[in-house]
Amino acid sequence: MEAGQNLRETLENTLAKYKINRGKVPLAELEGRYKKSYDKLKEELKQLTNDYLLEISVKGFKIGDDADELIEQMQKRIHDSEIGKRAGAAIFKNYSLSELEAIGAEVKQMLTEIYNPYFDRHCCLYIRPENLDPENPKTPWVYNDLIDKFWSFDRECWETRPKPEGGATLMFIRPKEGET
Questions:
Q1: Could you report the per-residue pLDDT of 138-156, keeping only the tens digit for each?
Q2: Domain shared by 24 and 108, yes or no
């Protein structure tokens, strides 16, 4: 079973338990007589919600040592969109895992828009000696140093290839000062 699916099932079960408690036991009793176990359940649900939201919205983004500005932009966008409040309401008020998943999809889209220019800056031409042969030059490969993969024009996807013997020059295209 995939880790994300297991996390989802655990969240779903914990949410069901929370919903049952809220529906059958008066809030005054939950916060009084059952305070310790109720607080523990709420904290567990909060942690599972956070972990699952991260799993469905952030997983898959690869970053390098130069990602400080990227991370700052992502955090600002999440904060400005009040994702935490909305996720909390989806779970603790509406008891809705599907609403949380919709928020996660929105976050994934939002972060992808910020991430794509960063990813693109890590694409380069992988120039080998045969690419510089004046008699019969071969087209250089497109490489991304974040994911350590080459672009396959035939399959239209990134793929792992062995790096050829003899070294290579990586040619990055950088925007002019002031451009993004």
A1: 999 999 999 999 999 999 9
A2: yes
